[in-house]
Amino acid sequence: MNNLVMAYLGDAVYELHVREYLIGNGVAKVNDLQKNSIKYVSATSQRRILEELINRNFLTDEEIEIVNRGRNADSHRSKTTDIITYKKATGLECLIGNLYKNDKERCNELLNYITGEL
Question: Catalytic residue at 32?
Answer without folding.
Answer: no
